[in-house]
Amino acid sequence: MSLPEVLLLNSDFEPLNVCNARRAMALILLGKADVLSHNGHMIGTARGHLPTPSIVKMRYHVRRPLPQLRLSRHSILARDSYTCQYCGYRGRDLTIDHVVPRWMAGPHTWDNLVACCRKCNLKKGDKTPQQARMKLLTKPRRPHFIPYISLPAYLKAKNREEWQMYLPVFDAFKDHS
Fold first, then answer.
1. Distance CA 106, CA 76 (A)
2. What does the alpha-carbon distance between residue 65 and residue 10 come to, in Å, rounded to a whole number?
3. Which is the most buried residue in 48, 113, 132, 141, by most CB within 10 A?
4. How many domains does the chain have?
5. CB 110 within 8 A of CB 142
6. Is the pTM of this model over 0.70?
């Protein structure tokens, strides 16, 4: 069984990270963090069972440099909600497609990369969508925000009702589930 995930907040309630319950419990037991909410589960220890936290807040402020939104496979898949941008197939077994192929000087950028199922990737091959007679469901673009937590973690976290009040709202991801 995997450990539940815990939202870790800075002392000013800004999201810092999503970590596992073991890491959160260590921060609590070391006196570095306080529990704001429990998830209803219990975690076994040598001295018995303790309630598992869902949200913890650091007791001191953690200074962080402004994060950079990294262009990665996971960020592209998360941005596209794990949905093929050609046929609409949803799943975790997607690939990344260059809209304008690299051999045609297509850049490796947010505006040229999309989530794509294997079937559509094979159908499109090394052509542009127009040449392959395929249409994109949404135009790819760079997200206009930089969350302190990674994009995949943010998109997963925003679906947890008890965490929503601590997460900033970004218009580009209001309707994604």
1. 16
2. 13
3. 113
4. 2
5. yes
6. no
User: CA of 137: how far to CAs of 21, 31, 105, 172, in Å?
Assistant: 38, 49, 23, 15
Which residue's structure tokens are 């197939």?
A: 89
Q: Domain for residue 141, yes or no?
A: no
Q: Is residue 132 part of a domain?
A: no
Structural domain that includes position 61 = 5-65+148-173
Distance, CA of 22 to CA of 45 (rounded, Å): 11
Residues 52-104: tens digit of each pLDDT: 999 999 999 998 777 677 899 988 998 898 999 999 999 889 999 999 999 99
Nearest 5°: phi and psi at 103?
Answer: -70, -20
In a domain, 114, yes or no: yes
- 3-state secondary structure (DSSP) of residue 30: coil
Closest CA to 154 of 73, 74, 89: 74
